[in-house]
Amino acid sequence: MTTDLQELLDSNRLWAQRTEARTPGFFTGLLKQQAPQYLWIGCADSRVPANELVDLAPGELFVHRNVANVVVHSDLNALSVIQFATDMLKVKHIIVVGHSGCGGVAAALHDRRVGLADNWISHVKDVRNKHQAWLDTVQESRRVDALCELNVIEQARNVCHTTVVEEAWRRGQELVIHGWFYGLYNGLLQDMKITIAGPEQVGTAYDDALAGLQSRYASMGAVG
């Protein structure tokens, strides 16, 4: 087993050379204050590289990632990222992005113990418990992804209820919250139809997103 990871350092040098050759002055340009329009809140899964999925260069996407793309009011890490992105960088959009086959969500669905992360995944279990009656109507083979999508909707609403976002809206700042879902099976991002530009839209957008999700799964067929 290698100990110095020289292959990664070599790959970095080649990437830097190619990037600078393709866009002369690219790295000196990054020395300026970053001004991204988007904050991406996604899962830490290595198969979901934020910038690559939306084809944005370094400096164009502010990113926060954790297990199962959770946003809770006790997580000062996530809240600090949201605050910095909103108040300092003045991002226009905050996008919560979940993905198919999420291991953290699967563990929550099946009460599978994974260690210390059980404490974190309990937030996803709260989502499962809240929607258990509906999840029981979904085909078993689709329940993990159904909970993944539910989790996106719930976490997007949680973002709306952070003090940072509420205060931004109160002062009239333009800020839109979104929920997306990434399919590992096809490489495509799907809009979960929860798009919220102000506090008065939160309840209706949440209800409509849930109704749309439930209707889509109903069209796939009931339990069986």
Question: Would you tell me the overall average pLDDT?
Answer: 95
Oligomer: single chain
Main sheet makeup? 5 strands, mixed
Number of helices: 10
Strand content: 15-25%
* Rg value: 19 Å
Identify low-pLDDT runs: none
N/C terminus separation: 47 Å
Attribute tags:
single chain, 224 residues, alpha/beta, 10 helices, 5 strands, 49% helix, 15% strand, globular
Word description of this protein:
Helix 8 (143-160) runs antiparallel to helix 10 (202-220). The chain has ten helices and five strands, in the order H-H-E-H-E-H-E-H-H-H-H-H-E-E-H. With 224 residues, the chain is α/β, with parallel strands linked by helices. It has a five-stranded mixed beta sheet. It is globular and about 55 Å long.
Short précis:
With 224 residues, the chain is α/β, with parallel strands linked by helices. Helix content is 49%, strand content 15%.
Set down the secondary structure blueprint.
Layout: H1 6-22, H2 26-30, E1 38-43, H3 50-53, E2 61-66, H4 76-88, E3 93-99, H5 103-110, H6 118-130, H7 132-135, H8 143-160, H9 163-170, E4 176-182, E5 189-196, H10 202-220
Parallel strand pairs: 1-2, 1-3, 3-4
Antiparallel strand pairs: 4-5
Helix pairs in contact: 5-6, 8-10
